[in-house]
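Protocol step 4 of 6: structure prediction from sequence.
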Amino acid sequence: MQATPDDLFAYLDRLGIAHSTVWHEAMFTVEQSGALKADMPGAHTKNLFLKDAEGTLVLIAAEAHNQLKLNQLHKLIGTKRLSFGPADLMTEVLGVVPGSVTAFALMNDRAGRVRFLVDAVLAGADIVNFHPLVNTGTTAISQADFRRFVEATEHRFELVDFSGL
């Protein structure tokens, strides 16, 4: 069963994580969210669900403007070449659909199938913004609370400096 934004907010509340959400039209790309970013403080993100040839699943949370060279990433993180994960697998594992990929979806990966990578630039931001499991909203939390959230989902907060690619 897929979690809803209300389920996410209840989960954050149980963890004592302060959050604020702005609702907006559906946004599928970093470019579409330009106006929203101007009005909402903190680092905005892009999130990628990837899979390698051996079935390793990777979720990346990166600062929105960071350039990720996916054709070289596998060398940096020790996987086979990565490609975008299929939509049905994304929904099965993370409980979200394409366009709504978010670090908050880690709460749905109870089996711990996904390796979670966080961009070093994003990890340096005081406030981080993610979709609340749907792309019609943006939810802000503090960096400290982001790390607490990831820990609560029993995933590692694996820091990666993508600038070396």
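Step 5 (inspection) to follow. The domain at 5-164 is CATH 3.90.960.10 (YbaK protein).
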